[in-house]
């Protein structure tokens, strides 16, 4: 267990000190902000229409705001998370290919 903790600790330190990781996290934050603004604008438009004329169904915040936002963020995460984890994977594959075996 201590070996796993040591390996995980070194990987976390590498990720926190890597400028590329911070750039990717910043891109994710920009994508999340853009997705929220887009979804919020669509929600406000639909809410305004519902106020001008009575809607057949009540306005559902979960369906109109939260669900589309989480879907967009999930897609952004699916695209950006492999970019964050790729360096750790390549380091691991390089260690295995050179014949170095990590202590178990």
Give an overview in words.
This protein has 104 residues and is mostly helical. The chain has three helices and no strands. It is elongated, with a radius of gyration of 22 Å.
Fold blueprint:
Blueprint: H1 2-17, H2 19-52, H3 61-97
Helix pairs in contact: 2-3
Largest sheet: none
Form type: elongated
Number of helices: 3
SS content category: mainly alpha
List keywords for this structure.
elongated; mainly alpha; 104 residues
Question: Would you summarize the structure shown here?
Answer:
By secondary structure, this protein is mainly alpha-helical. Helix content is 84%, strand content 0%.
């Amino acid at each position: 267990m201590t070996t796993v903790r040591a390996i995980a600790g070194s990987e976390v330190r590498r990720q926190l000190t890597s400028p590329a990781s911070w750039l990717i996290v910043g891109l994710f934050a920009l994508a999340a902000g853009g997705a929220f603004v887009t979804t919020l604008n669509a929600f406000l438009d639909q809410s305004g229409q519902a106020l001008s004329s009575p809607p057949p169904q009540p306005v559902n915040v979960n369906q109109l705001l939260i669900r589309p936002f989480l879907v967009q963020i999930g897609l952004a995460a699916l695209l950006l998370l492999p970019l964050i984890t790729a360096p750790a994977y390549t380091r691991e594959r390089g260690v295995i290919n050179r014949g170095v075996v990590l202590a178990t």
